[in-house]
Design a protein that fits this description.
The protein is of the alpha+beta class and 152 residues long. It folds into 2 domains: 80 residues, no CATH class; 55 residues, Beta Barrel (OB fold (Dihydrolipoamide Acetyltransferase, E2P)), CATH 2.40.50. Helix content is 43%, strand content 23%. The protein has 4 helices and 5 strands. Strands 1-2-3-5-4 form a 5-stranded mixed beta barrel. A hairpin with a 2-residue loop joins strand 2 and strand 3. Helix 2 packs antiparallel against helix 3 and helix 3 crosses helix 4. The longest helix has 24 residues.
């Protein structure tokens, strides 16, 4: 049944596949089927031009579809994720990274390399040289939920 449908549609079968994949992109979460759908439309465009050629057999069409799917996916991802635009809030979702450069007072002494500071309403675990409680420290780096400090 599928074979007869492909034979009846001829070069338009790639267009149908491409449009079905683009429609599936709306339903399926993620952002991947659009690139495969575009690759099918590329092969469909080539099929409209080359359908009567002797070398345009289904194996060649599948090879071109696979190659164009890889190329279109790589180019699309590069376009989407390669646009690093400057922002006025570079540490928006990186709270600990936004604390680098600030100074604070040790709430607990740094003993054996670990202690705690209080910034605003939050206590942070810090690592650094052993210092007594009440010492002013400067945050020099962040590693997740842990801050690295030096004496200010």
């Amino acid at each position: 049944m599928l074979d007869s449908l492909i034979v009846q549609l001829g070069p338009w079968s790639w267009w149908v596949l491409g449009l079905l994949l683009l429609a599936a992109e709306l339903v399926v979460p993620g952002f991947f089927l659009i690139w495969i759908g575009l690759a099918a439309i590329i092969v469909g465009s080539l099929s409209l031009l080359l359908w009567d050629s002797g070398f345009w057999i289904w194996q060649v069409q599948l090879l071109i579809f696979a190659a164009s799917a890889v190329i279109v996916t790589l180019l699309g991802r590069r376009y989407l994720y390669g646009n690093d635009q400057a922002t006025d809030e570079p540490f928006l979702n990186q709270r600990s990274a936004s604390l680098v450069g600030r100074t604070a007072t040790l709430a607990e002494p740094i003993a054996e390399g670990r202690g705690r500071i209080r910034l605003n309403d939050t206590y942070w675990t810090v690592v650094g040289p052993d210092l007594p409680a009440g010492t002013r420290v400067r945050i020099v780096a962040s590693n997740g939920r842990e801050l690295t400090v030096d004496a200010a």
